[in-house]
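Sanity check. The docking grid for manganese (II) ion depends on where the pocket ends up, so I'm generating a full predicted complex first rather than guessing from homology. Inputs follow.
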Amino acid sequence: MSDQYQPQPEHKFTFGLWTVGNPGGDAFGEDVRPQLSPADLVYLLGEVGAYGVNFHDNDLIPINATPAERASILKAFKQALAATGLKAPMATTNLFADPVFKDGAFTSNDARVRAYALHKTMHAIDLGAELGAEVYVFWGGREGIEVDAAKDPVAGIRYFRDALNFLCEYVKDQGYNLKFALEAKPNEPRGDLFFPTTGAYLGFINTLQYPEMVGVNPEVAHEHMAGLNFMHAVAQAWEAGKLFHIDLNDQNYARFDQDWRFGAQNLKQAFFLVKFLEDVGYAGSRHFDAHAFRTEDYEGVKDFARGCMRTYLILKEKAARFAADAEIQGLLAEIHADDGSMDAFKGAYTAAKAAALKAHTFDRIGLGARGLQYEKLDQLVNELLLGVR
Ligand code: DIG
Ligand code: MN
Ligand code: MN
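Predicted complex below; grid placement will be based on this.
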């Protein structure tokens, strides 16, 4: 398939080892694909044209690996990176799979588990830095509750803050070029997760000791699980200077975490997300935290990975066509026209301005009667996306 939708390094498309390496097992069924080695997954991503590969510590080095096994895996992984030219822009810690974290990691009620989570994360940060990661993600998959009586949410918030402050100090102490990106999710695998949305994290970051080191990693599926407009979450993060990373996939509303191929479910939302990222010049990774359907073999997994990237590039072209569409742009100019009649009231507050505004007479009925032409605008967008303009 050679056309203008071929991924290039400048697109910064990345995949986690756990995505293309997912053997397809789920809560109701066995693996459907053999487990590939991290090095083999790097070659697979190189074949489909990805820019980079991300990993949890234990995607790369099994939690019970011997030092010799660790050295061998790491050597093969580095050789694969060198051979393919792939980067490793993001790393993270698996603080959710091992039974030790069954009641949380940083927010566990058990101080020994909280300390072990810091221990594990510092070693994982070392590994990420060694492989060139510049973003370190924290997804609190087990940081939550099924039983509110068992855990005070304020204690959970404070434990999480203590852990992040400690780890920011560690990164500064080590001189690593790393910034942290917090990834929200409302539930699953716990009944309720702390910090359920990107907005919750944006409120939390400012309470940290080093807020400048910490941003967010919004994921499509997770904001959709909360019934939210993903692009709006991304826009607020961007506007706050906190969009450090992004997890792209797709997700039907009111479903468990589906982590589908980008654009597989909600093409219009995917379009407005791509349009936003391209309009603002987002320079970070386009990370596909997504999984191929369980129906697929590894050729299907490659189709999945190519589909994620192709859909992004096709929607990027649609965004350019949106910007160049004279009828759409003309309508937007009309919609956003400003006759300057309110200029005297704009800008910083003054007592005189407030007095004049209070005294001003508005044509409330006329303002409310205007037709805004949004039906026409939205239909034009649909026809753009349907390929008829
Ligand atoms: C799941 O959405 C989470 C974990 O896979 C990982 O910690 C993070 C990194 O993208 N996403
Ligand atoms: Mn997810
Ligand atoms: Mn994710």
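Relevant for the grid: The beta strands are 13-16, 52-56, 90-92, 135-139, 144-145, 179-183, 192-193, 214-216, 247-248, 286-288.
Also worth noting: The chain has two domains: 3-320, 326-385.
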